[in-house]
Specification:
Layout (H helix, E strand, L loop, with lengths): L7 H11 L4 H13 L13 H9 L2 H4 L9 H12 L8 H8 L1 H11 L8 H9 L4 H30 L5 H15 L18 H16 L11 H17 L4 H36 L3 E6 L2 E6 L2 H35 L12 H22 L4 E3 L5 E3 H30 L2 H14 L9 E4 H9 L12 H10 L1 E3 H9 L14 E4 L2 E4 L1 H4 L4 H12 L6 H18 L3 E6 L11 E7 L2 E8 L7 H32 L1 H6 L10 E8 L8 E2 L2 E5 H9 L20 H6 L14 H9 L10 E2 L2 E2 L13
Parallel strand pairs: 6-7, 11-12, 12-14
Antiparallel strand pairs: 1-2, 3-4, 5-8, 7-8, 9-10, 10-11, 13-14, 15-16
Length: 765
């Protein structure tokens, strides 16, 4: 007799039922196990994704899933995962769910991303299920409208790509730079507060260019990506010089046609991207709206204004945090200058004010990375070399100052004189040649050795008065986006993250490095550093140490407030293993259990939804087990109680369990019943310096000046979260009521202060 092979998910279900768990909860837990990638590997044997999908969707648990279970979180997400994959088919599953739980199917279809995948066999299954339910049939009609609209935009983009198919990657960037100076670079540029010109969405444009760059890299030959003086010269002679210096000639006609074609290409790419972000992604991931079909068009109906407002509110919090860290940096800078007035002096005397701002920006990013992200003062770049983080941040900010002053502000000045962007660029280029043969073209390039030499001057310290060329080289690698390596990965169809232009703004073409002044001069360098380390470098060996430094930093602040804390406690292993508890704190009868997550800054609702349904969903499950383990240890382990300063007669009566995340997404939502807050909110609450969120000196609003009444409004004492003194009870109340984010603004004379960071391009849409 042949023994029937066991199914992990069915076995788990049987065990749960045997333990007295209800059928509905047992199904939910089995679905959760599937989402969490179980069964875990045994020895070297690891299930592939296809094998796991096949095992789950063929299980008796799925076949016997009660109708109401499909609406619960785990099975709804599992169904969305099924609809989003193609290799595994579950016969008649979609038809059954359409008949028994149509609302659950509709939600899963939305979350699956199927809206832009009309050729998937799962889409055919949804179409077949339309006969089971009128609402599902209407969903199919909505999907058809999306399919047609998407097809039109893709066709339009491909037609425009064909017009410029012969351009190399470098030549595409040449036209992108001309386009940028025509459309994006502010004509009234102010070095202190750069802002995009009216009607130009800088971030949307940068994203579109990143997509076009990926298109070109996926088709580029390796030789074309290794720039030399000869091929750079040929490209300039054919595509840049005619526009700037040979107006009216035949060669100028070709270049101008290409420039117009590039405009059309950008318009088509932006149109497609906006359709995806504002329509298809909104359909898939914005639960605050629904799309209703009116013939061949769709209308958006708002069904949950609060859900939609939360996304915007989180974006405003992010802007205020930029200002908070700037003011923290300003305080640190004052202390440094008081100790040593020569600390920040670097570069040309005429650039002193801008260089001082660069120093402040570097401090701003370093403080944020150190305290909120746990990043050490030295980090490892892709080359394996160690980089001094502050020097790397300072170097990027000094690059920004250079491009702001010598390119963007200089261009705006010449545009003001001529009223013509071509004439202004022409003048900028010629003036650069007269001023020592300097490259003032809309795109710059240099050899790597030359760039290292230039950066070495920015690594000067008292111990190394001539600078450190090795450090300069490592800094350059830290900010480098390798065109050849990316092209090879794209052409092999290998998965991987593509840097955004602002995250690694030094473009490496073999031994030649290219920079885009209109990106480096306007980008948010703090966000660039965070995402360089936490998005692109999430798998660095230092990442775990960084998470533990976040936990230790929170513990130190809690201890200053009188808490007894315990870090990284590992409870005894049991059948429902809790794993390591990041941070436990006790004060005044209040117990706090905190689960820390360190991620990156997201810019799309899709990324935020994925974060919520993966990392944060799992964090809620982990925290439930950890809270239970801590409660058991307090009740049964005298040694554990002693560490926390507790006794058998003195145990906490109030319990608070929070997920503390470095990103702002899903702020103050609950996962597994537990509150999710940002690490930065906890830092501000414990430091009691929320007044710094409100631009107390008016520096960021451009309203700096002596105003005693206004200073009193924005003073630290006036904004204290603990007017009656700190207590654990008040601390919990501050976090749970979002008091840190109190929307009061200091006003004077009927004018509300604007709390926005002046250097905030590329932070978040």
């Amino acid at each position: 007799m042949v023994q029937r092979a066991t199914n992990y998910y069915d076995d788990l279900f049987v065990r749960l039922i045997g333990d007295g768990v209800s059928q509905r909860i047992a199904v939910e837990r089995v679905g959760t196990a599937y989402l969490d990638g179980k069964p875990l590997p045994v020895g070297k044997r690891k299930l592939t994704k296809k094998e796991r999908d096949s095992l789950f969707w063929s299980s008796d648990v799925v076949k016997g899933c009660p109708p109401d279970a499909w609406g619960a979180e785990a099975m709804s997400l599992a169904l969305a995962r099924y609809l989003g994959q193609e290799p595994v088919t579950a016969d008649r599953l979609v038809t059954r769910v359409a008949r028994e739980a149509p609302e659950a199917l509709i939600r899963a279809v939305r979350h699956s991303g199927l809206v832009l995948n009309p050729h998937s066999p799962r889409r055919s299954e949804v179409d077949e299920a339309a006969s089971e339910c009128e609402a599902v049939a209407e969903l199919c009609g909505v999907l058809d409208v999306f399919t047609g609209a998407h097809r039109e935009r893709v066709a339009a983009l491909e037609a425009q790509k064909a017009q410029l198919a012969a351009l190399s990657v470098f030549e595409l960037l040449l036209y992108a730079s001309l386009y940028a100076f025509e459309v994006l670079v502010p004509k009234d540029f102010n070095v202190k507060a750069p802002a995009p010109s009216s009607g130009a969405d800088v971030q949307v444009t940068w994203d579109a260019l990143g997509d076009l760059l990926a298109w070109k890299l996926a088709e580029a030959g390796t030789s074309s990506l290794k720039l030399t003086d000869d091929n750079i010269g040929r490209s300039l002679a054919r595509h840049l010089r005619p526009i700037l210096f040979e107006s009216g000639t035949a060669s100028a006609g070709e270049a101008l046609r290409n420039l117009r074609a590039f405009h059309a290409l950008m318009d088509a790419q932006i149109e497609l991207n906006e359709f995806i972000s504002r329509s298809s992604d909104a359909f898939s991931y914005d639960d605050g709206i629904r799309f209703e079909r009116r013939g061949n068009r769709l209308e958006i109906v708002e069904v949950d204004p609060a859900a939609r407002a939360a996304w915007q509110r989180d974006g405003l919090k992010l802007e205020r945090l930029h200002g908070y860290w700037f003011h923290r940096a300003l305080d640190t800078y004052v202390e440094q200058v008081a100790a040593d007035p020569t600390t920040w002096k670097i570069g040309r005397p005429e650039s002193a004010e801008a260089n001082r701002l660069a120093w402040l920006r570097a401090l701003q990013a370093q403080l944020r990375l150190r305290e909120a992200y746990g990043v050490a003062d030295e980090v490892t770049c892709d080359s394996g070399d160690t980089v001094d983080l502050f020097r790397a941040l300072l170097s990027l900010n000094l690059m920004s100052v250079f491009f702001q002053q010598d390119f963007l502000a200089a261009f705006a000045e010449r545009f003001d004189a001529s009223g013509d962007w071509v004439a202004a660029l022409q003048r900028l280029t010629m003036d650069g040649l007269r001023e020592g043969l300097q490259n003032r073209m809309p795109l710059t390039w240099s050899s790597r050795d030359s760039k290292v030499s230039n950066i070495t001057g920015w690594t000067v310290t008292k111990s190394e008065p001539a600078g450190n060329p090795r450090m300069a080289s490592a800094i350059l690698d830290f900010w480098t986006y390798d065109m050849v390596a990316t092209a090879e990965r794209l052409q092999r169809n290998e998965p991987g993250l593509q840097p955004h232009l602002f995250e690694r703004p030094v473009l490496k073409f073999g031994a030649t490095l290219v920079q885009l002044p209109w990106v480096v001069g306007m980008q948010n360098n703090s966000t660039a550093a965070i995402n360089n380390l936490r998005r692109l470098g999430a798998r660095r060996g230092q990442a775990r140490d960084e998470a533990q430094r976040i936990e230790a930093g929170l513990a130190r602040l809690l201890e200053k407030r009188g808490f007894r804390t315990l870090l990284n406690w590992v409870p005894p292993r049991g059948p429902d293993d809790a794993g390591e508890v990041d941070l436990i704190a006790v004060l005044g009868g209040h117990l706090f259990v905190i689960e820390v997550k360190s991620t990156f800054m997201r810019r799309s609702q899709r990324d935020a939804w994925l974060h919520a349904t993966t990392t944060l969903r799992k964090a809620g499950q982990q925290l439930r087990r950890k809270v239970e383990a801590v409660s058991v240890a307090i009740a049964s382990d005298p040694g554990f109680r002693a560490v926390l300063g507790l006794s058998e007669w003195l145990i906490p009566t109030r319990q608070h369990a929070w997920i503390a995340d470095t990103c702002i997404e899903c702020d103050h939502q609950r996962f597994g019943g537990f509150l999710k807050v940002s690490v930065e909110e906890l830092l501000i609450a414990l430091r009691d310096d929320r007044h710094l969120l409100n631009d107390p000196a008016g520096l960021l609003s451009g309203s700096y000046g002596v105003d005693e009444a206004r200073e009193a409004d924005a003073s630290e004492s006036g904004w204290s979260l603990y007017p009656d003194g700190f207590s654990a009870e008040r601390f919990a109340e501050v976090i749970e009521t979002e008091a840190v984010w109190d929307v009061r603004t200091a006003t004077r004379g009927g004018r509300t202060l604007q709390l926005a960071d002046s250097q905030n391009v590329a932070s978040r849409e």
